[in-house]
Recover the amino acids of this structure.
């Protein structure tokens, strides 16, 4: 087969990405699509298939998978970071975070209560 022609379509998605980011500021939902290289013409996206992937995109997996016990303060910091990204609005996130932090679900709820009290 011989090449007959080429079609090139140029499209600047920057306006739509900025609009989406502005709208998402009003709803603290974790982004399953992370846009990188915003100031270039190339946009890369990373899709997460489960809650653990989303958590690992926010928290370094080696920190959670290590055999070193994390202090309560460090666990609260991790929960705070996850809370800021809206992870706990996802069904089943509490149990996943509890499992990853090697604590009980009530402990995660306690950490969230401490985080909310500090914000007030």
């Amino acid at each position: 087969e011989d090449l007959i022609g080429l079609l090139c379509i140029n499209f600047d998605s920057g306006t739509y990405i900025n609009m989406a980011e502005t709208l998402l500021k009003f709803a603290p939902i974790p982004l399953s699509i992370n846009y990188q290289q915003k100031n270039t013409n190339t946009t890369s996206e990373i899709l997460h298939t489960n809650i653990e992937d989303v958590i690992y995109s926010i928290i370094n997996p080696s920190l959670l998978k290590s055999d070193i016990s994390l202090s309560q303060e460090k666990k609260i910091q991790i929960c705070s970071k996850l809370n800021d990204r809206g992870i706990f609005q996802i069904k089943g996130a509490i149990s996943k975070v509890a499992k990853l932090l090697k604590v009980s679900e009530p402990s995660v709820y306690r950490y969230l209560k401490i985080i909310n009290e500090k914000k007030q």
